[in-house]
């Protein structure tokens, strides 16, 4: 596919990723727990799964099926509210030099996959935006073009959320009170986003 189209898409994707949302809130909270890599890795795996869904043509089917999209929206909204409530009740505190248990890293990886993979807004962005940057006359098949665009978005997410989590860890490690406050704010953000998803679907 044309390199210019890929670069243009990358610019648009970077702007979308720069807008704070549930991924940002999750990455910040994970950074405060010194679990930056598993958090970013989970988010990447979630968007990688979404890329495969869209490249295989299932994204259009889901977005065109009201029941499937409603189910995804409700499940994603409920999960964000649950995870945000959990963070508000137990805000992150930088553990200092303490080693993060392997079970904690795996749990964070799975949570990151759920945060991005269950995001119906993310699926709609993939379905609505990616096709605009494809070229039916290009030598690459359409599924391969969609996969390339999705992988570009996913790789950019990985870089951004690694930086966000590392910044949260580096800036707030020595400020436990501020870290707890920021953690609670990220939890509240998840609850609000999840609640908006539910209200949008149920009203």
Automatic annotation (TrEMBL):
Segments traversing the membrane: 37-60, 67-85, 146-169, 181-199
Membrane topology of this protein: Multi-pass membrane protein
Keyword Transmembrane helix listed: yes
GO cellular component: plasma membrane
Pfam short name (any one): LysE
Keywords for the protein's UniProt record, in alphabetical order: Cell membrane, Membrane, Transmembrane, Transmembrane helix
Predominant location: membrane
Domain of life: Bacteria
GO molecular function, one term: amino acid transmembrane transporter activity
InterPro entries, alphabetized: LeuE-type (IPR001123)
Subcellular location: Cell membrane
Protein name, as recorded: Threonine/homoserine/homoserine lactone efflux protein
